[in-house]
Amino acid sequence: FDYDKIKNILIASNKVKIYDPTNKTTIYSDKITYFKNKELILTDGNSKAIDKDTEIDAKDFEYNKIKNIIYAKGNVKINNLKENYLIYSDKITYLKNDELILSEGNSKAIDEETQIDAKDFEYNKLSNILLAKGKVKINNKKENYLIYSDKITYFKNDELIYSQGNSKAISD
User: What is the 3-state secondary structure (H, E, C) of 48-92?
Assistant: First the structure.
């Protein structure tokens, strides 16, 4: 590893692991740059962040320890081990303090019964509400229906779906 005392920057490579005890998050990556003065961690290659019930995999991260926000890009996958769902996207912003996940581009959410595809997501983990925008497709395998829409709001706790814009529902 390399450490610049003047700038207070640490650069480490080759299967790096960093633990943040304040936010109870462990980060793994091929390479990590830690800007101590800004409490900012940048990762490069095979990046993974793990907390008590969520794993995030991506090519690269930017982790702001002060704001407790992870910006992930490049084949992002979120695996929620507690609630048993997966989210995939090109880019994801996870605001951990607010339990809010924002995805950008080629977004997909999967649980035991349902797969939702859209351009972008906004998922509130606390209220369990997913807002999907841009060429939304919902495929519910248990209830055997498809929904296509410009935009949907999915209230998972109540199993309610509201669609906006051009919408079509197909049921077998």
Answer: EEECCCEEEEECEEEEECCCCEEEEEEEEEEEECCCCEEEEEEEE
